[in-house]
Design a protein that fits this description.
Helix content of chain B: over 70%
Number of strands of chain A: 12
CATH class of the largest domain in chain A: Alpha Beta
CATH topology of the largest domain in chain B: MetI-like fold
CATH architecture of the largest domain in chain A: 3-Layer(aba) Sandwich
Structural class of chain B: mainly alpha
Largest sheet of chain A: 8 strands, mixed
CATH class of the largest domain in chain B: Mainly Alpha
Bound molecules: adenosine-5'-diphosphate, iron/sulfur cluster, magnesium ion
Number of strands of chain B: 0
Strand content of chain B: under 5%
Oligomer: heterodimer
Largest interface: A-B, 29 and 23 residues
Structural class of chain A: alpha/beta
CATH superfamily of the largest domain in chain B: MetI-like
Number of domains of chain B: 2
CATH superfamily of the largest domain in chain A: P-loop containing nucleotide triphosphate hydrolases
CATH topology of the largest domain in chain A: Rossmann fold
Strand content of chain A: 15-25%
Order of helices and strands of chain B: HHHHHHHHHHHHHH
Number of helices of chain B: 14
Order of helices and strands of chain A: EEEHEEHEHHHHEHEHEEHHEEH
Shape of chain B: globular
Largest sheet of chain B: none
Distance between the termini of chain A: 37 Å
Radius of gyration of chain A: 21 Å
Strand order of the largest sheet of chain A: 6-7-8-3-9-10-12-11
Helix content of chain A: 25-40%
Shape of chain A: globular
């Protein structure tokens, strides 16, 4: 894969919304790439701008006060300036998306199968019965029991897990090169969550799709992703290969997120260490590092916005590595137990 | 299915019984409503009064009178009016029903079609001048009194411009039975239909627009867009179809009420002898048999319309099918 142009190349993406007469920046200079068949995890607390990033890439934000800057290239094609009509051929066919809440993501008045057929037939000239054959096969592939009957059921007749499987089946119906999954397991219970993650992990071999997996749960990333991007308050905090970030996080926020993963083995602690405080509202971001108010290592130099710098295998927006005071490598939970 | 039908039938009978008892009691409790003296005429001799009382059964206990009236209304169907001696009320009602049915149905077709168009277009162009203009027109429609609008329509088409090419086709006021001349029927009713529809168009377009706007924020609309569907398809196939549920329940109530006589004002302005007018006459003459007949008739239609709405619901919303 080395040397290949990335599948998706996002550069300096900025999204702001007009509110109360001024532009409120939600996403600032977010850059990342997704390669073919790669799984990129985008992590951050609620409100850090993960969904807005995904919706901006898909150009699905219909707020009239939105303004988008930067560049999004998909297979070398610039998406930000593509006319909406041309964009429709990309949505669903090249880049598909699934959402957090499978309960509300299907139109309640049509059967699951009808809605997947629709997704196929909008992009490909196939007959109804051909579409249905593919729908049933997809549902079966996604581990839906009795796919033929399930296709004729309405969304409310299925469990959350089945609905999310159907949702993934619908997203894969046109064999997209990239699947954006916005918190696909957050609304599901733990066992179902593991099954769905398994499904996503296998997409690259079974369907050749890359996945952009959005989550607020570092544990999900640990189980699934090749690369990770940590967002904090609309900015990239750290970005790099998952293995590097898990062994030696360079940003104190990443380290704090990693500390909040429940151990896979050994006794579950009564309370997980969590990060005190909340992220700043977009309008109240401090001029320097946005994490400073919650950071144990904050000092004077942090009042200047730290640029993304290279550290080991990752890029990090913190001045500690530059000052030669990088965080120590982590002791993994497994080793403790 | 059969159980549901029987249940519905039982409910209907219960509702009819309740309403009829209520009408009956209210009538006899109303001071000055005593029909004997009005039937017998002013200054009637005591003998005449006694004869009338006996002939009409007013000397019998109320429950017996009630039962007799119900029997005459539903079984023998020869209930006669108190106001016009010898006039049978059931045929009277049967004559008026097609007029009202034609008026309400035609008006409903117009208002449903136009309001769906208006509401959908307004929602599609939400926040633009198109949206504002359509909603302003709707609001004007809501605020115009039907009676006034009807009078103006008559003034224009019957008097002032009747001789111009534009309105010379408009027939004189009144109803033409469909069986007699479908074209005549249409010509006679088209202006009343439009007049009746104006009020409802405004209300329905607003309701639909606001439902569509609400629904456009739903997750499934986002899914539909993420699939790559065109905005038109998203709006019509996913949005409109889902938004029709409130629209239909509103329609069921309004339509039933119109069929049951609620189009009184339109009927009066356009000289249509419909159920609304009949009920009005019955009420002003305190003519119990006619009141009773028309109230029963309205109640039946309200129940029927509700049943129809339920059926449409089942068709529209699969969640209702599963009893959720
Ligand atoms: N349409 C919008 N108008 C204004 N602000 C918005 C809009 N959509 C999202 N935001 C703001 O953007 C920020 C990031 O939201 P989001 O991307 O949904 O967070 P996440 O998905 O990471 O939980 C939040 O502060 C939210 O209030
Ligand atoms: S720049 Fe300063 S405040 Fe921000 S994360 Fe690094 S040490 Fe903490
Ligand atoms: Mg989100």
């Amino acid at each position: 894969m080395a040397g290949d142009a990335p599948l998706l190349d996002v550069r300096d993406l900025c999204v702001s919304f007009r509110s109360g007469g001024r532009d409120v920046p939600i996403i600032e200079n977010v850059s990342f790439t997704v390669c073919e068949r790669e799984i990129l995890g985008i992590v951050g607390e609620s409100g850090s701008g993960k969904s807005v990033t995904a919706m901006a890439i898909m150009r699905l934000i219909d707020d009239p006060g939105v303004s988008l800057r930067g560049s999004v290239r998909f297979r070398g094609q610039e998406l930000t300036t593509l006319p909406q009509k041309a964009f429709r051929h990309i949505r669903g066919r090249e880049i598909a998306m699934i959402f957090q809440d499978p309960m509300t993501a299907f139109t309640p008045v049509y059967t699951i199968g009808w809605q997947i057929d629709e997704a196929i037939r909008v992009h490909e000239r196939v007959s109804k019965s051909e579409a249905r054959t593919r729908t049933v096969r997809l549902l079966g592939d996604m581990g839906v029991p009795d796919p033929e009957r399930t296709a004729n059921r309405y969304p409310h007749q299925l469990s959350g897990g089945l609905r999310q499987r159907a949702m993934i089946a619908m997203a894969l119906s046109c064999n997209p090169a990239l699947l954006i999954a916005d918190e696909p397991t957050t609304a599901l219970d733990v066992t179902v969550q593991a099954q769905i993650l398994d499904l996503l992990r296998n997409l690259r071999t079974d369907y050749g799709s890359a996945v952009m997996l959005i989550t607020h749960d570092m544990g999900v990333v640990a189980e699934t992703c090749d690369h990770v991007m940590v967002l904090y308050s609309g900015r990239v905090a750290e970005r790099g290969p998952a293995s590097a970030i898990f062994t030696q996080p360079a940003h104190p926020y990443t380290a704090a997120l990693l500390d909040s993963i429940p151990p896979l083995t050994g006794p579950r602690p009564m309370r997980l260490p969590s990060i005190a405080g909340v992220p700043p509202a977009p309008l109240e971001r401090p001029p320097g590092c946005a994490f400073a108010p919650r950071c144990h290592y904050a000092h004077d130099a942090c009042s200047v916005l730290p640029p993304l710098v290279r550290f080991a295998e990752q890029d990090v927006a913190c001045i500690l590595p530059g000052e030669g005071k990088a965080l120590p490598p982590r002791i993994l939970h497994g080793a403790e137990a | 299915m059969l159980k549901a039908l029987l249940q519905r039938f039982g409910q209907t009978v219960f509702v009819l019984f309740g309403i009829s008892v209520l009408v009956f009691l209210v009538f006899f409790a109303t001071p000055g409503a005593d029909p004997t003296s009005r039937i017998a005429g002013k200054n009637a001799s005591p003998e005449t009064i006694a004869k009338v009382r006996q002939e009409y059964g007013f000397d019998r206990p109320l429950p017996v009178q009630y039962a007799t009236m119900m029997k005459k209304l539903f079984i023998t169907q020869d209930l006669t009016s108190y106001a016009n001696r010898g006039e049978k009320v059931v045929p009277e009602l049967i004559k008026a029903a097609p007029v009202t049915l034609s008026l309400a149905t035609g008006g409903a077709v117009i208002w449903v079609v136009v309001s769906i168009l208006m509401g959908t277009v307004a929602a599609a162009f939400r926040g633009t001048w198109i949206d504002r203009t359509l909603m302003a027109i709707g609001l004007i429609g809501i605020s115009i009194p039907v009676f006034w609008l009807g009078q103006v329509a008559n003034l224009i088409t019957q008097a002032r411009y009747h001789d111009t090419w534009l309105f010379s086709w408009v027939p004189a006021l009144g109803y033409v039975p469909f069986a007699e001349s479908p074209v005549g029927w249409f010509k006679a009713l088209i202006i009343p239909w439009c007049t009746l529809a104006v009020l409802f168009i405004g209300v329905y377009a607003r309701v639909l627009r606001s439902d569509l706007v609400t629904v456009s924020g739903e997750d499934f609309m986002r899914t539909a867009r993420a699939k790559g569907l065109s905005p038109t398809r998203v709006l019509l196939v996913h949005g409109l179809r889902t938004s029709m549920i409130t629209f239909v329940s509103l329609f069921g109530m309004d339509f039933a009420q119109l069929i049951g006589g609620g189009a009184l004002l339109t009927e009066v302005v356009f000289g249509l002898q419909g159920v609304g007018r009949l009920t009005y006459q019955a009420l002003s003459a305190l003519d119990l048999p006619l009141i009773m007949a028309s109230v029963m008739y309205s109640a039946v239609f309200v129940v029927l319309a509700n049943a129809l709405v339920d059926v449409i619901y089942i068709f529209l919303d699969p969640r209702v099918r599963d009893g959720r």
